Amino acid sequence: MQVPLYQAKAEFFRMLGHPARIRVLELLQHGPVQVRDLLADIEIEPSSLSQQLAVLRRAGIVVSIREGSTVSYALAGGDVAELLRAARRILTDLLAGRNELLAELQQSGGAAPPVAAAVRQPGGDGAR
Description:
Number of helices: 6
Number of strands: 3
Distance between the termini: 69 Å
Mean pLDDT: 86
Low-confidence stretches: 117-128
């Protein structure tokens, strides 16, 4: 039985759904990076980085390159870098929209009282 495309996409995005994996992909956008440099930039335990790299490798997103005793990783293709750039554009647009809304609210002058001031104690009328 064939997996529906929407389900395959969901699995793909789930595979990307870890901060360390996203950071690895960001660091690999400009070319191969040695594992020791990934460890220094990501600041996670070597075993955790190894697990995250294995997930990306199994998915075919990254490839490992061995030169002697040195292991580097690289993106398997340019589409992943484009996906990361698209995610950055989408997040930028979303955050810009929120900043515009915040600025509009701050300029409106008819601000509501702070939430804590509006909350009453249960069973009381707020007066002491």
